[in-house]
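Technical note accompanying the year-one report. For the benefit of new consortium partners, we illustrate the data format agreed upon in the data management plan: each record pairs a sequence with a structure-token string. No post-processing was applied to the example shown here.
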Amino acid sequence: MAASWETIKVDGSDMRMYLSVPEGSGPFPAVLVSQHGPGVNEFIQDFVNKLAKEGYVACAPELYHRVTEEMLADGSSAGQHLNDPEIVADINATVEFLRSRPFVDGERLGVTGFCQGGRTTWLAAATNPHFKAAVPFFGGNIRVPVGDSDQSPFDRTSGMKCPVLFHFGAVDTNPSPEDQARYDEELTRLGIPHQFYSYPGADHAFMDYNRDRYQKEASDIAWPRTLEFFAAHL
């Protein structure tokens, strides 16, 4: 496994990406890993490396590359400056980067992410036709537009061309059990194959071992399920 930081231009801005490639010549299936609120930190990098050890090229783009210190001077967080059209541009650029690599099978692409990244995962699957599998983890605010958009990721669901595996914490409030029911209803209505798992006692961010809400039992079940899903569809 070889890990590195790569940089590409998106709308004139330098976007860094954490990339991990399995041993061997490939071509390998690939998974785009959508960052959570803290960015492409240790947890995200670790997840990227774990996917590479399982035989996937994995790549996590830094979606905060347009955010400046001046924008944060008012005490806002980087995540508050995200913009759905820009997120889509970043996802599309990452997909094209992966598809252009000789060690990637461009017809076998998946996407996953956590919290904010779970929302981005839904948005990515609904706007980019190249994904063959999507795995959101506790994605919140999926029914809320962000930035210069009048459509939420949920509003774009009809654009999905791939099956979905969604991991929920049973005591999470965003996404809540009511959100889960609404997502299930919409995916069913549109004929999009999906599997939903809700983990008893698990809260938001139950996968993140750096947080108080980490729940090892749920995490240890969700990870193999994710690998099984990617193996089946990629």
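Partners are asked to follow this layout when depositing records. Helices lie at 42-53, 69-72, 84-99, 116-127, 177-190, 216-233.
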